[in-house]
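Field reference: "sequence" (input) and "structure" (output). Example, C4-dicarboxylate ABC transporter:
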Amino acid sequence: MMKRFALTGLAAGIALATLAGSAQAQEKWTMTTTWPDNLDLIQIDRHWVNLVNQLTDELQIDFRAGGTLMPGTQVFDATETGSIQAAGDWPGYWAGRSPAFSPLATTTSLFNGVDYLNWIQQWGGFELYQEVYGQYNMVYLPYGITNNESGFRGGTPIESLADLEGKRLRLSGRDQGRVLERLGGSQVTLAGGEIYQAIERGVVDGAEFSTPGVDYKAGFSEVADYWLTPGWHQSASVFGVMINQDAWDALSKETQEKLKIAADATMAWSLAWSERQSTEGTVKFLEDGTEISHLSEDDLAEIQRITNEVIVQGACENPMHAKVYHSMVSYLEHYANWRDISVPFNMSRVTDNLPSLKKIEACMQQETDS
C-alpha cells in the first residue's frame, strides 16, 4: 500500500512538473537578422537560436532570415519599439545613430578576434554594449566574433597605399571611411547583397565585405581577380542579438542566464568556425586563380598612424565614442604586461603604436567641462 502511494505520489509530482513546464513555455519571440539566407554570417544567428531553443522551455524563438519580414535596415527600429522581440546584427550598421556603435562592431587596425573576446568577457566590454544599446530600449548579447577580414577585392590590382589614390571602394564603418579618405580613396556604401554586381559592372574599383569563407560563398571569385591583404579596415568583427527591453524583462532570471550562456557558447564556436571557413575560402580563391597582394610594413605603419589620429578625432566629437575607445586602449595597455613577454606564443598581436590614451582622456575631460 505504501509502495503504491509512493508511486502515485511520484507520478503526480511528474505530472505537476510537466504542467508547470507547459505553463512556463509561454514566451514566443519573433527574431530576424540583417543577413539574408545567401550570406553565410546568418549561420551565427542560427547557431544561437538553436541553442536557446534547446536550453529553455520558457522561451521559443521563431527565427526568420533577413529580408523576409522587413529590410535589414529596419530591424533596429523594429526591435527598439517591440514590433519584434529580437534581431541579429552587426553594430556598425547603427553608427549613424551613435558613433559608439562603430568600435562595438569592429576596429581599424586595432583589435583582433581574441582581443574582442578578452575585452567583452573580462575587461568591461560587455557592460559597454549594454550602456550603448540600453539608450535605445534594448539589451545586447554579443554572440559572434570573426577574426581579420579579407581585404579589398576587385577587377584591377591594388598592391600598395599609393594605388588607393582616387579609387572608389565599398567600405563599411565611419572610422574606416575616414582612414580611407586620408589615404586618398573614397568610401562607397553598399549593402552586402549589392557588392557582387557593383564589382562586376565597375561601379566600384574594389570592395570589402567579410572573411574569405563568407566572401567565397558570396561569389566574389567570379568577379574579382585581385585581392589586397590584410583587411586593416576590420581587424576583427563582433555580431550579436538586439533584444527589446520589455521582452527581456518578461523572462525569468534563469532563462535570461540561459540566453547569456548560449551567447558565450556561440561566440567561442563562431571564432573557430570562421577561421576554418576562412582557411577553406582562401584555398578556393587561390585554386580559382585569384592574385593576392600584401601591404608592406611601411604601408601598415602609415595606416596605424592615421588610424590613431582618427580614433582621437572621434573621441573629441562624442563622449560615448571616447568612452568605448578609452576602454579598448586601456585593455591593450594592461594586457601588454603579459602579452609582450609571451611572444611568440601570445594570443594577441603586439603593437607599440597605440592611440594615445592621454589624448583620448583630454577629449573626455573637455566634453565633461563643456
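The chain has two domains: 27-147+236-273, 152-235+277-337.
The two ends are 81 Å apart (CA to CA).
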